[in-house]
Amino acid sequence: MDNDRIDQIIDKHPSDPSSLIQVLLEIQSENRWLPKEALRRVSERLNVPLNRIQHIITFYKAFSVIPKGRHEIHVCTGTACHVRGAPRLLNAVQDLIGIKPGETDEALRFTLETVNCVGCCALGPVMVIDGDYHGKMAPAESEDVLKNYE
User: Fold this and answer.
1) Which of 17, 71, 106, 118 could form a disulfide with 149 if both were Cys (CB 3.0 to 4.6 A apart)?
2) Is the pLDDT of residue 14 over 90?
3) In this model, does residue 113 exceed pLDDT 80?
């Protein structure tokens, strides 16, 4: 992401530290992660010390300082999903895409995460891909679902 695009995002907001989180969210939404160069530019433009930005992005799980895949997969491992087969679903997804939770594949196609709850316990086990909810997932169905994500 170049400085011109970062500046465009910053210019949409008040030019002060109160815009920091929204600016970071927009940069990450477009870029899928927050490169060090982008953080430096935001620091300069919003007059926020870089160490303060680092504290914020490491506090909130929504931010990533490592590249993410084009598709983010979240497998719910909360109690309701767990008892309905989430461990088997997670194992199937790991086998299909070749990565473990917290990892991104080399082609930057998928990032896999586990979450404690996605709020739809009656549909467990649940897998969320790019915000699309897939409920009552059997491990065997996961391959067909993943095929829809290039």
Assistant:
1) 71
2) no
3) yes
* Mean pLDDT score, 73-79: 97
For the chain, give every domain's residue range. Answer: 3-59, 71-147
Task: Give the DSSP per-residue string, 80-147.
Answer: HHHHTTHHHHHHHHHHHHT--TTEE-TTS-EEEEEES--S-GGG-S-EEETTEEE-S--GGGHHHHHH
Mean pLDDT of 62-81: 94
pLDDT of residue 48: 95
List, in sequence order, every residue forming a beta bridge with 132; answer none if it has no partner: 129
* Torsion of Cα atoms, 73 then 79 then 81 then 86, to 10°: 70
Instruction: Single out the residue of 41, 36, 34, 35 nearest to residue 8, CA to CA.
Output: 41
The answer to whether 70 and 113 are in contact (CB under 8 A) is no
Burial class of residue 122 in the structure, from the number of CB atoms within 10 Å of its CB (0-12 exposed, 13-18 middle, 19+ buried): exposed
